[in-house]
Amino acid sequence: MSNGITADQLMQRISEEYEGLSKQLKVIAKYIEEHRTTLVLERITDIAQACEVQPSAIVRFAQRFGFSGFSDMQALFRDSFAPVQGNVNSYQKRIRTVIASQNTPLSNTELTQSFLSACQQGLEELSQSLDPAAIDAAVELLYKAENIYVVGVRRMFPIASYVCYALQHTQKRVHLISGLGGMYHDQVRSIRENDLMIAISFQPYGRETRYCARVAAQNKAKLLVISDSKMSPLARNASTVLTVKEGTAFAFRSMSSTISLCQALFIALSYRLELVIEETQDAGAYDD
After folding, report:
1. What's the rounded mean pLDDT across residues 171-188?
2. Which of 82, 90, 92, 258 is the most buried (most CB within 10 A)?
3. CATH at 155
4. Do 62 and 184 fall into the same domain?
5. In what residue span(s) does the SIS domain sit (predicted)?
């Protein structure tokens, strides 16, 4: 490759420089992040049409990150190509076809089965796209935190509540930023340098969650973000970002992948804490 980097390194650089991109280039960046596993198959005209920009904008984007042109950048994603990803698009097309072809409304069972299939697809994609380094970093943040603050609004509020419920089964001091009575400011202002905030937010990214993340950064606390993109506004000050692409059916996004990821983090933290307890007990067994 012309600049000697990997696809992962390119995506990391795009994420770091995302806020400084023009509006058009931001749209292209998001598209590339969401379609990196099939980008090698796509034509520049198709990407331009999907992003509602001119093909020249795609070329400018590639050159912005050190490539001679789109083809040069596209080749970088050859190793990331995953044919199984096509199942996502074909599934969505099948759902739309089913809806369009129905002469009678779908039954409750058919609707349920379709939505559960979308949830299964989202979980499969999450399993395939997990970043081991990011998972390890997230567990390390949870382990070292003196206090853990958790925030998620609207659709993500039930997940934030569950995270607090789960973490309260450990010895960690856990605080749910519920905003009850409009008291987001009061609930977050005590966060400090040795604390951790877990911010859970998906597009369009809740204003309240973004505010809490800014306060955490200003107070030098660590920030663990669970979101749909490493280019979300929350990622700017994050210590670690975990991305989740939820399955969608009938224009409704599930929450199964996000809550499964949160449960997995809790289990990994609990395992880490128990290992430390066992090591301490084993060491004490040799004391007089």
Report:
1. 89
2. 258
3. 3.40.50.10490
4. no
5. 138-280
> How high is the mean pLDDT of the chain?
81
Whether residue 270 is contained in a domain is answered as: yes
How many CB atoms sit inside 10 A of residue 46's CB?
Answer: 11
CATH of the domain at 15: 1.10.10.10
Nearest CA-CA partner of 144 in 194, 78, 84: 194
163 CB-contact burial (10 Å; exposed 0-12 / middle 13-18 / buried 19+): buried
pTM: 0.67
pLDDT at position 288, please? 44
Say if CB 244 and CB 138 are below 8 A apart. Answer: no
Pairing of strands 240-243, 222-227: parallel
Last residue of a domain, one of 46, 61, 80: 80
Please determine, for residue 87, whether its predicted confidence score (pLDDT) is greater than 50: no
* Alpha-carbon distances, residue 68 vs 33, 44, 74, 87 (angstroms): 20, 14, 11, 32
Query: Any idea what DSSP says for residue 106?
Result: P
